[in-house]
């Protein structure tokens, strides 16, 4: 084994300290990031807010002074090294970085927390004040502490929640939990109890039946993590994490699977993000007060269409808020609930909502999209040999055009790198 002399050991220590506290120096504005310094920057800062731009892009040029101003404001608000950096990447010069981060439009604003890329981009207001407030929000503690079980009884039943139970705050397992919560704060609500609150725990009304050995483990001093689903909107049950609480990747993967549901709600706030994923939408339009159809739709998707999750986005939509797509389909609030496909070229109506409960009907509806049958039947009527799923379009010669594509990244806001972003 090689022996290290004192000078070599001293050099290694200096390098390690530099790595931990590395924060690129710049007199003002956002920090230019290159292939030489980006990895060091991402690894040594709690939060890195990245602006991917091109100098020839007019939207990038409009954003540049605003993002630089925001960087100065953030540096003033959070002066400690290792906390937050606003960085900028010239994608024409740093093509390998642009490719690594899958940049398809300029400017693109992304977040890296604790070295982990956040799935969600920043798509909000482009002002220095908005960027500063966003950074402040990102650096807030994502975990809310409860002192008694009664605190858990008031949690929102329409939200997906992760609850941690620990003896002490200084446990290494809690540090792992805190880091995962920081990375997934946009996907779930996180709550934690310590000491007596943890020892007395069980999800309200559950009578411990879902926790099994987890409760026994807690009495032995082992912390546990429990997932509580959005019970008002799904038929899911509580689940307990059974892996290692000292393994960041294992815990993150489990929580991400629980917090990002197979069926998501589309809103005007997340429509751009969902549309940019490029997958057709299978959407349940429902009345705002109708939770039963949402629960049943989710259950049927999970039971029958799991193998389609790579090909389509399963969504629910408030039929009152999305009245325009309904009108486009020739429907109104009185017709809810209804199911439709938006392929980003056309929209297709599922004939009868009640047919959803017949095994195979929704799956065949998707297959008819893939093989072109839905489009053919709008133009030429039913195929000579048809299955039971048909669409009555006697008065139409073409299906309605997509409305959700219009909610994707706008050419009035971004320079798109492809002719059709979808």
UniProtKB/TrEMBL annotation:
CDD domains: PDI_a_ERp44 (cd02996), PDI_b'_ERp44 (cd03072), PDI_b_ERp44 (cd03070). Gene3D superfamilies: Glutaredoxin. InterPro entries: ERP44 (IPR052643), ERp44_PDI_b_1 (IPR041870), ERp44_PDI_b_2 (IPR041862), Thioredoxin-like_sf (IPR036249), Thioredoxin_domain (IPR013766). GO terms for cellular component: endoplasmic reticulum membrane; endoplasmic reticulum-Golgi intermediate compartment. It holds the Pfam family Thioredoxin_6. Residues 12-140 form the Thioredoxin domain. PROSITE patterns: THIOREDOXIN_2. PANTHER family: ENDOPLASMIC RETICULUM RESIDENT PROTEIN 44. This is Thioredoxin domain-containing protein.
